């Protein structure tokens, strides 16, 4: 047999949990057909000496719902070996959606996930209303990766209830319509139903997103649709606003897992913010307890801390201050001229004193940019490379004998692409 592709001399990490091992990998007709010391000829041979050979990674938590419309390769996920992404997490989705609500959906994604509304409105050929129509559109688009998606609760609630979704408990008729839409989505190919109770998930107006208005009766009913069809994952953004809130949330989530029998997935987010936060081990013990009782539950986490990224071209921590708004509304070149003006700089530096003082409030998501607290300059790094030896703004300002805000202004004037 002549192989299509032979990868020689690589170090294989196969995802099974076994230790890595040195091996060749043979591929025929798009499938791995042989692993070991391979002597068969091949149409193409790659030397993987010193490299890892592994299956593509599955990124279980993305918000590529819009990006898939204009980025066929799925950057930058594809650059890190990701071959499958799951979209529509935490209830944020672009379907179902009525034509009149498109901009609102886009603005909600911007408020929480920092995806520019203008980019979405310009880059999406919005040719759907229902979830099956959106799913079919994604299927038709050119893609270098596999894409799966949840039906998102906030989108679904807005579709069925309109503006009432942001303030009211669902009626029996609302539940019936939402339940039918969940069933239609699952039959069309949705991987499950997603929602959020995270206090950091807010609308552009600063209020809670639609899913946070729902009560547990509504969640039980919608998760029950998956149980009846015996398919789908229940994914949820957790409430970690305080240790007590998280404990109450997790206790109730366990009931969903046990009652429905469906796999439950949530973010195992640990923080030192908020009142009486729980240690990270608490969540792992809780998952073990749920599984021991017969539930299926999985935690999602990251390999690094969750950070807000600021830059001159996107957001700076001061953008919502009155003195800064007029400057930041200008074209970039005009902004730079204003930032270089000593009198304007004096006003901008002085405005920082009016920011909210730092507290132990748990803050993340869109609130980091839409309603920021006074920056902790000891924890804001002026990114200079990939070796993680970047100085803090506090260190730089102290060395220059100037206010941290002025230091940040100097940095962005020297480099349009400076990231913090």
Shape: globular
Indicate the radius of gyration in whole angstroms: 24 Å
| Relative helix content | 25-40%
Proportion of beta-strand residues: 15-25%
In sequence order, what are the helices and strands, one letter per element? EEEEEEEHHHEEHHEHEHEHEHHHHHH
Poorly predicted runs of 5 or more residues: none
- Give the rounded overall mean pLDDT: 92
What's the total number of strands? 13
Number of H/I helices: 14
TL;DR?
This protein is of the alpha/beta class and 420 residues long. It is 35% helix and 15% strand.
Structural commentary:
It is a single chain. The protein has 420 residues and is α/β, with parallel strands linked by helices. Helices cover 35% and strands 15% of the residues. The protein is built from 14 helices and 13 strands. It has helices at residues 102-113, 117-123, 131-140, 153-161, 172-188, 216-229, 243-260, 280-292, 322-328, 332-339, 342-351, 367-370, 393-400, 404-414; strands at 3-12, 21-28, 31-36, 42-47, 52-53, 57-59, 82-87, 146-149, 151-152, 192-196, 233-237, 264-267, 297-300. Strands 1, 2, 3, 4 and 5 form a 5-stranded mixed beta sheet that branches. A 5-stranded parallel beta sheet has the order 9-10-11-12-13. Helix 5 (172-188) runs parallel beside helix 6. The chain is globular, with a radius of gyration of 24 Å. The N and C termini lie far apart (54 Å).
């Amino acid at each position: 047999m002549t192989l299509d592709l032979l990868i020689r001399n690589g170090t294989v990490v196969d995802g099974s949990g076994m230790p890595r091992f040195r091996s060749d990998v043979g591929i025929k007709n798009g499938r791995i057909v042989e692993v070991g010391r391979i002597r068969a000829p091949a149409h193409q041979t790659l030397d993987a000496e010193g490299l890892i050979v592994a299956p593509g990674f599955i990124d279980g938590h993305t918000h590529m719902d819009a990006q898939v419309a204009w980025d066929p390769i799925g950057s930058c996920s594809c650059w890190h070996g990701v071959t499958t992404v799951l979209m529509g997490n935490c209830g944020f989705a672009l379907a179902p959606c009525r034509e009149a609500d498109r901009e609102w959906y886009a603005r909600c994604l911007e408020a929480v996930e920092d995806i520019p509304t203008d980019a979405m409105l310009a880059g999406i050929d919005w040719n759907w209303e229902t979830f099956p129509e959106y799913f079919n559109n994604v299927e038709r688009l050119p893609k270098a990766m596999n894409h799966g998606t949840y039906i998102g609760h906030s989108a679904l609630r807005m579709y069925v209830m309109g503006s009432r979704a942001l303030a009211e408990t669902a009626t029996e008729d609302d539940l019936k319509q939402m339940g039918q839409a969940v069933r239609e989505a699952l039959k069309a190919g949705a991987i499950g139903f997603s929602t959020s109770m995270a206090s950091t998930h807010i609308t552009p107006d600063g209020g809670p997103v639609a899913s946070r208005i729902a009560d547990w009766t509504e969640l039980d009913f919608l998760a029950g649709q998956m149980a009846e069809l015996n398919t789908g994952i229940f994914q949820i953004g957790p409430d970690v606003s305080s240790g007590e809130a998280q404990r109450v949330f997790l206790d109730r989530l366990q009931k969903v897992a046990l009652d429905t029998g469906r796999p439950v997935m949530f973010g195992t987010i640990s923080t030192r913010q908020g009142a009486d936060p729980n240690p990270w081990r608490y969540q792992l013990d809780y998952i073990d307890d749920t599984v021991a009782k017969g539930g299926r539950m999985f935690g999602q986490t990251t390999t690094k801390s969750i950070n807000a990224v600021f830059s001159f071209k996107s957001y700076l921590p001061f953008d919502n201050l009155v003195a800064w708004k007029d400057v930041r509304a200008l074209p970039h070149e005009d902004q730079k001229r204003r930032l270089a003006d000593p009198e304007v700089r004096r006003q901008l530096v002085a405005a920082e004193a009016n920011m909210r003082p730092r507290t132990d409030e748990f803050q993340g998501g869109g609130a980091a940019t839409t309603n920021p607290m006074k920056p902790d300059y000891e924890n804001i790094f002026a990114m200079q490379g990939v070796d993680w030896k970047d100085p803090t703004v506090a260190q730089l300002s102290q060395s220059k004998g100037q206010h941290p805000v002025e230091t940040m202004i100097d940095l962005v004037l020297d480099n349009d692409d400076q990231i913090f």
